[in-house]
Design brief:
By secondary structure, the chain is of the alpha/beta class. The chain folds into 2 domains: 61 residues, Helicase, Ruva Protein, domain 3 (Orthogonal Bundle); 194 residues, 3-Layer(aba) Sandwich (Rossmann fold), CATH 3.40.50.150. Helix content is 37%, strand content 21%. The chain is built from 11 helices and 10 strands. It has an 8-stranded mixed sheet with strand order 6-5-4-3-7-8-10-9, with helices on both faces. The chain has a two-stranded antiparallel sheet with strand order 1-2. The chain is elongated, with a radius of gyration of 20 Å.
Amino acid sequence: MTVDAWLRTAAARLNTESARLDAELLLTHLLGLTRAALYARLRDELDVAVVTHADALLARRARGEPIAYITGVREFWFMPLRITPAVLVPRPETEVLVEQALMRLPIDRDLSVIDLGTGSGAIALALAKERPRAIVHALDASDAALAVATENAERLGIGNLRFVLGNWFSGISGESARSLDPELRFDLVAANPPYVAGNDPHLLQGDLRFEPRMALTPEGDGLAAIREISQDARARIKLGGWLLFEHGHDQGATVRKILLGDGYAEVETVRDMEDRDRVTLGRWCAA
């Protein structure tokens, strides 16, 4: 079977919008090629062992397992991140949060930033990479997630991060935990918290079935984490500092109401590339 034949067969078997791309990503991972190099070899014959292995990976994808869990890699902000089932798979729309944060973080001075619920470290690493004078705290309640984020930082050579085991602003004591200074105030707080409603049927469909539920939903109406962070952040943000949330496409108005009710100013919602509400932010200006 040629490369081209396998790709065609694989895409037909998946029969989804991203079928061809998924097939290419699986085969490039297996062969250690770039997509450009793969296209240069479309007429090459595949060994029987390679076809067998590729078919096994394809079967995992056909069951709905995310590509990033199969290959162990996902690119975010031009960085190849290691991904495991302990963390959410970074989405392209999360880069909107990074873009909005960078617009509010000057490049020419020292800064203190925190990424709440860092997971793979995607947001924290992007901010630390683009703002080398900032100290970016990457906090997560999962030891396994922090291990992934720490490995990503070490592999990418990004050193201006501090990893914290904690539940939002509450540090968790322990030999392996780096506690969060209770007196520390931040120029910017970024969060991509769990925001899916607990009864959302999408949690039982597709890729989401394989991702950690605690990182997807706080149960209930999906807004409990956003409410808690919005309230607690008021004591943690420097005067004039910013709070930014990623949230669901239908939650913008509600999240704006939460921030306004908690006393934030300059509250607005930013849309993603598909023109959906994606990031809501506010500035802490209260005395």
